[in-house]
Specification:
This protein is an all-alpha fold. The protein has one domain: Up-down Bundle (Na+/H+ antiporter like fold), CATH 1.20.1530. Helix content is 72%, strand content 0%. It is built from 16 helices and no strands. Helix 6 (155-170) runs parallel beside helix 13 (348-356) and helix 9 crosses helix 10 (262-276).
């Protein structure tokens, strides 16, 4: 039995580690999530008394803990983006959402159906669960803290951050579609009416409500933060970072109440708040607080994931399931990501990096826990968890070890080109970021 006092001590060490590790692993082929994942596995293998982790039996707390982590990270991503919203400025993002995401879902679904032998509903569920990307698990590939410049974000960091900000929510229609397919299979088959209902309600209506609610809440909060006539309510003048958590929960809760996609709304809310007063220093306060909360939650979840793996969480895994997850990381995402970026502002090296870093993480764990609370999919829940867990663990290791060397190499090349292009020995961030590789 695990002692509560031991858990308190472990939480204290973990929180201190989450504060110190980003500087300790900087510029090294490591990431904070990778360290916490390894620590969870190591402590369990050393027979340290840790609680039993069972995401099937404890599905509810897994769902809600991962849910909180995802919405907090979405708020942080939206607040960090400096580039104004626009069709051309976000061209790479739209390509990732409209090309890479559906092609990846189709490919993984076919793999799960044809290689693993799962029924269509379970195959679609796996594809939808593994659709969201998550740069939180490799901080080098995401946009940094907000600045007052609209042009200092390189194409790689911007594309990966903005893609993750939106596809975390846009995976929801496909997860719900998998549930509807499971119900239809039990009732005798898919009908045109059922498909039309899914397309109109789960795809069009709920996405539109998510965007509209995010814009409305973001506009209200932007006015409250920066322009409210009553000084006591003009929150930017008080510089309290926890307000970002309030904005996150408000946007998410209101949108879910009106049956929209809360993940979409949180990211849109953050972008709208940023647009209300783009150069204000309060964005840095909000972003820093969100980043600290996000780091703590991510560290805790990756530690627990490591414990789960060491306790035998991958025991139900088959070689077919392992192949499907690894093919997503090594073949499907790189190919579809490359195709989507052809013709965008990114250069060939940048396209390759954007395509490769399709990181799978906390969003996948949330969607699986959420889906298994509503439907049966004809596949043991433990086997589904094993495939998704392997994919997330492989992504944390692969991308966590490669992110720093790869991104550092791109940064050095951009700096060299900026200097060679006449920007002088010390070019500013805008000149460096504008160089295509």
């Amino acid at each position: 039995m695990t002692s509560p006092d031991f858990l308190f001590a472990l939480l204290g060490v973990g929180a201190l580690g989450a504060a110190a590790l980003p500087r300790l692993v900087a510029r090294r082929p490591l990431s904070v999530p990778l360290v916490f994942l390894a620590c969870g596995m190591a402590l369990q293998l050393l027979q340290v008394p840790l609680p039993e982790i069972d995401p099937v039996a404890d599905r509810v707390w897994v769902e809600h803990l991962t849910e909180i982590c995802v919405i907090v990270s979405l708020m942080g991503a939206g607040l960090a983006l400096n580039r104004p919203f626009g069709r051309r400025l976000w061209q790479g993002t739209w390509r990732q959402l409209c090309v890479t995401m559906p092609l990846s879902i189709a490919a993984v679904g076919l793999l799960a159906w044809g290689v693993i032998g799962w029924p269509p509903a379970a195959a679609l569920l796996l594809a939808a669960v593994l659709a969201p990307t998550d740069p939180v698990l490799a901080s080098e590939v995401r946009v940094g803290a907000p600045t007052d410049s609209e042009h200092d974000e390189d194409e790689v960091r911007f594309a990966l951050t903005s893609e993750a900000g939106l596809n975390d929510g846009l995976a929801f229609p496909f997860v719900l579609g998998a549930g509807a397919l499971a119900v239809a299979a039990a009732d005798g088959g898919v009908t045109f009416g059922g498909f039309a209902r899914w397309a109109l309600l789960d795809v069009v209506f709920r996405c539109a409500v998510g965007v509209a609610a995010g814009l409305a809440v973001g506009a209200l909060l932007g006015w409250l933060f920066f322009r409210a006539g009553w000084r006591a309510m003009r929150l930017s003048e008080h510089r309290e970072g926890f307000v970002a958590i309030g904005a996150t929960f408000l946007a998410y809760g209101v949108t879910e109440l009106v049956h929209g996609y809360g993940f979409v709304a949180v990211f849109v809310t953050a972008c709208r708040i940023r647009a209300a007063e783009r150069a204000h220093g309060y964005h840095m306060v909000l972003h820093d607080f969100v980043e600290q909360v996000e780091r703590l939650l991510t560290a805790a979840l990756l530690f627990l994931l490591g414990v789960f793996v060491a306790q035998g969480g991958l025991a139900p895994l088959t070689w077919q399931g392992a192949m499907a997850g690894l093919l997503l990381l090594f073949v499907v995402r790189p190919l579809t990501g490359w195709l989507a970026q052809v013709g965008t502002a990114a250069g060939p090296r940048e396209r390759a990096v954007i395509a490769f870093f399709g990181i799978r993480g906390i969003g996948s764990l949330f969607y699986l826990a959420y889906a298994l609370g509503s439907h049966g999919f004809g596949v043991p829940a433990g086997e589904l968890w094993a495939v998704v867990t392997l994919t997330v663990v492989a992504s944390v290791v692969l991308h966590g070890m490669t992110a720093s060397p790869v991104i550092s190499r791109l940064d050095r090349l951009r700096l060299h080109r900026a200097r060679a292009g006449g920007a002088g020995p010390d070019p500013d961030e805008d000149e460096v970021a504008s160089k295509r590789l």
